[in-house]
UniProtKB/TrEMBL annotation:
<feature type="compositionally biased region" description="Basic and acidic residues">
    <location>
        <begin position="13"/>
        <end position="23"/>
    </location>
</feature>
<dbReference type="InterPro" id="IPR051885">
    <property type="entry name" value="CC_CF"/>
</dbReference>
<protein>
    <submittedName>
        <fullName>Uncharacterized protein</fullName>
    </submittedName>
</protein>
<feature type="region of interest" description="Disordered">
    <location>
        <begin position="1"/>
        <end position="23"/>
    </location>
</feature>
<dbReference type="GO" id="GO:0005930">
    <property type="term" value="C:axoneme"/>
</dbReference>
<dbReference type="GO" id="GO:0036064">
    <property type="term" value="C:ciliary basal body"/>
</dbReference>
<feature type="compositionally biased region" description="Acidic residues">
    <location>
        <begin position="1"/>
        <end position="12"/>
    </location>
</feature>
<feature type="coiled-coil region">
    <location>
        <begin position="78"/>
        <end position="137"/>
    </location>
</feature>
<dbReference type="GO" id="GO:0060271">
    <property type="term" value="P:cilium assembly"/>
</dbReference>
<keyword id="KW-0175">Coiled coil</keyword>
């Protein structure tokens, strides 16, 4: 093996260089595939020759003719395999394009929804502030019907704190409800 003839430091450096190497391009893959096909065909031819020689030897040795002869008819043609490879490669490329398009569409939609949510949050905060202002204004002018005294700022703040606590409890309840629905 290649690494057996190298020193341990060289092996580590070679592995580091391999991990830093850039990604293989499609053209390189195609050329490597074609080279591998040529090598496979060459080795297949040698294999067939050796099998034929073995069959001839066994025929001579046993004197039987019932052993089948080895032919290339049982094997797939290289052209068919190449065609299947090209078809699958085209499918992969089409799926990669679709994935990229779907990712872009998803990202666009996600950004749009986040923007819409942020706009709604700002509007809700404005409405809450307006509501608190109105409650304070109305409560500061209100009077108790029995005593005729005005409502103190402490009581107004207590009322607003109670409202805030109820709102937070409602939000928590809604969150829990939606969480259980999605589970």
């Amino acid at each position: 093996e290649f690494f057996d003839s190298m020193e341990p430091e060289e092996v580590e450096e070679e592995k580091k260089e391999e991990s830093r190497s850039p990604r293989i391009t499609r053209e390189e893959i195609v050329s490597r595939f074609q080279a591998a096909e040529i090598e496979r065909d060459r080795l297949r031819h040698i294999n067939l020759q050796l099998q034929q020689r073995l069959a001839d030897y066994l025929h001579k040795r046993k004197g039987t003719d019932d052993l089948p002869t080895i032919t290339q008819a049982n094997e797939r043609s290289s052209a068919e395999q190449q065609q299947r490879y090209q078809k699958h490669l085209a499918e992969i490329e089409a799926l990669q394009v679709k994935l990229k398009r779907d990712q872009n569409e998803f990202e666009s939609r996600r950004s749009e929804i986040e923007s819409h949510i942020e706009t709604k949050k700002i509007r809700i905060d404005q409405l809450k502030a307006e509501y608190v202002r109105m409650v304070k204004e109305i409560a500061s002018k209100a009077v108790f019907s029995r005593s005729g005294k005005t409502i103190s700022t402490q009581e107004i703040e207590g009322y607003l704190a109670d409202l805030k606590a109820k709102e937070e409890e409602l939000i928590k309840t809604r969150h829990d409800f939606h969480f259980h629905l999605s589970s």
